[in-house]
């Protein structure tokens, strides 16, 4: 799919069930990973009659113009990644106009889908916010710092300092487990695969961090929410040991923020002892089942 924003070729993957399609789930992956990591979850959905679609975000996976562009967004604003996501929605809905449509975002993808919902909530029938970064009051300062570094260095520069400031707090909690990415998962095999993959764990360019921090600021800014679909079913899910949510109180603030904006059909669920990548933990099956049951109860029954 060529992005309507700038023509960038975005790599898209789709999985259909063998029989009747009951619903569609569009997935938005996280930072410094790629779409193929969601194949197991997509296979589960297909076996339950749900079609799923995912693309590599710009600057990720196969959605790059060259390898040096991993973590580079070809954008200054944080908007293109959101518009790409909406463009894919419209493309799929054009082919399947009558099917209920659920948007799922993990981690950075959870920022993308909330920024999307800020403008386009009438185009979806359900929203799943997974492993969401909680509000960080230092995000505006971080954005200004990144912009300053860009002027001194370049937008393609990969700053170990910014990487350290962004993630050292996450890493510190699991420092004795042998990998700086142990915070992602209690499933050590998942962490090993992540560490070994060249398409995972790369340091963002300054341009990438600028887009990331812009998204973090936008989703927690009360200005600009249209809230046209106030009854949109929304669920926040995360692992209780996910440092990205900071703590349970901050996690609660993230979903009550949307309640305060005006959304009326909100739920949340913390999965005990799981970390950031709840779809790839050893106990991922219970997460899959929870998501499927939520789709049935909150989306399919309402749609039928």
UniProtKB/TrEMBL annotation:
Keywords, in A-Z order: Hydrolase
Residues in Serine aminopeptidase S33 domain copies: 21-283
Alphabetized PANTHER family for the sequence: PHOSPHOLIPASE-RELATED (PTHR11614)
InterPro entries, alphabetized: AB_hydrolase_fold, Hydrolase_4, MAG_DAG_Lipase
GO molecular function term, any single one: hydrolase activity
Top-level lineage group: Bacteria
Protein name: Alpha/beta fold hydrolase
Gene3D superfamilies in the cross-refs: alpha/beta hydrolase
């Amino acid at each position: 799919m060529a992005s309507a924003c700038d023509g960038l070729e975005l790599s898209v993957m789709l999985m259909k069930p063998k029989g009747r399609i009951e619903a569609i789930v569009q997935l938005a992956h996280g930072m410094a990973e790629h779409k193929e990591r969601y194949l197991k979850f997509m296979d589960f959905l297909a076996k339950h009659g749900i079609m799923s679609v995912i693309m590599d975000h710009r600057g990720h996976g196969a959605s790059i113009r060259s390898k040096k562009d991993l973590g580079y967004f070809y954008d200054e604003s944080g908007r293109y990644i959101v518009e790409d996501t909406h463009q894919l929605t419209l493309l799929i809905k054009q082919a399947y106009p009558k099917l209920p449509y659920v948007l799922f975002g993990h981690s950075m993808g959870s920022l993308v889908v909330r920024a999307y919902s800020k403008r386009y909530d009438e185009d979806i029938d359900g929203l799943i916010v997974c492993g969401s970064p909680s509000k960080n009051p230092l995000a505006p300062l971080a954005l200004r710092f990144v912009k300053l570094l860009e002027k001194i260095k370049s937008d393609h520069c990969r700053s170990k300092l910014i990487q350290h400031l962004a993630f050292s707090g996450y890493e510190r909690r699991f420092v004795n487990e042998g990998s700086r990415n142990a915070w992602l998962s209690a499933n050590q095999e998942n962490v090993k695969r992540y560490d070994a993959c060249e398409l995972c764990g790369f340091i963002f360019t300054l341009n990438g961090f600028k887009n990331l921090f812009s998204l973090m600021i936008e989703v927690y800014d009360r200005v600009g929410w249209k809230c046209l679909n106030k009854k949109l079913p929304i669920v926040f899910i995360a692992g209780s040991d996910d440092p990205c949510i900071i703590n349970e109180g901050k996690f609660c603030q993230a979903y009550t923020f949307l309640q305060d904006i005006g959304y009326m059909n909100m739920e949340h669920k913390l999965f005990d002892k799981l970390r950031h990548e709840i779809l790839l933990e050893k106990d991922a099956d219970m997460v899959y089942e929870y998501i499927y049951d939520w789709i049935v109860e909150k989306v399919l029954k309402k749609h039928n």
